[in-house]
Amino acid sequence: MAEIFDEWPEKYDQWFENPIGRLVREYESRLLLEMARPHHGERILDVGCGTGIFTLDLLRAGSHVIGLELSLPMLQRAGKKAAGLPFHMIQGDMCGLPFADSAFDKTVSVTAIEFLEDARGGVAELLRITKPGGFVVVASLNSLSPWAVRRKAAAKEGHAIFEHARFRSPSEMADLVPLPALIRTAIHFQKHDDPERARAIESAGDAGRLDTGAFLVVRWEKPNEN
């Protein structure tokens, strides 16, 4: 899998530079921060940090972030963006995290779980290394959204990344962990919508708490030890 992503750092970042991509990033970042609630001085692990698009949001909140990523080119790009900030890089796999139990205040993972064969095991690892009372926040492409339908179609045509991905619904994500889950979605508009119309669509979707937004975020709180 690492080799597949090695070719994508520049393309991935470029997507967020066009008008609709900037809008997607705005709403995804907002929801991720609402769910993760990063605080100054917290130690957060960003699993599958990619090129650091969302890592920077955590760092700007004053958190100390460890970025773990399978693809070295992606990780190196994230490191350049975060130069001078409390960011440390580790190349590694989500299913075998090289950290002690309860090592982090919070753990975050954005659009990495789609590529795990053992998603339950991956989230269990995130819970293991999170302190009691801390959050595990996982974002994924929502299988109920038209965005996922398009990616599934691309997979059938041989898209190198999407043919390895599995997209889940909100209920399927919640079922990965036997704990209460807080679930929210964003990106209710479509890729080719006019940006101004997209804002109106997003406002309506958010107000209605629709569960069909493309950006699906689930939060679990690790129980305190007795």
Structural notes for this entry:
With 226 residues, the chain is α/β, with parallel strands linked by helices. It has one domain (2-221): Rossmann fold, CATH 3.40.50.150. It contains nine helices and seven strands; from the N terminus they run αααβαβαββαβααβαβ. The chain has helices spanning 2-6, 9-15, 19-36, 55-60, 72-81, 119-129, 146-156, 170-174, 195-207; strands at 43-47, 64-69, 87-91, 106-110, 135-141, 181-186, 215-221. α6 links the parallel β4 and β5. The N and C termini lie far apart (40 Å).
Provide the CATH superfamily.
Vaccinia Virus protein VP39
Percent of sequence in beta strands: 15-25%
Radius of gyration: 17 Å
Biggest sheet: strands side by side, in what order?
Answer: 3-2-1-4-5-7-6
Give the CA-CA distance, first to last residue.
40 Å
Tally of separate domains: 1
What topology emerges from the helices and strands here?
Elements: H1 2-6, H2 9-15, H3 19-36, E1 43-47, H4 55-60, E2 64-69, H5 72-81, E3 87-91, E4 106-110, H6 119-129, E5 135-141, H7 146-156, H8 170-174, E6 181-186, H9 195-207, E7 215-221
Parallel strand pairs: 1-2, 1-4, 2-3, 4-5
Antiparallel strand pairs: 5-7, 6-7
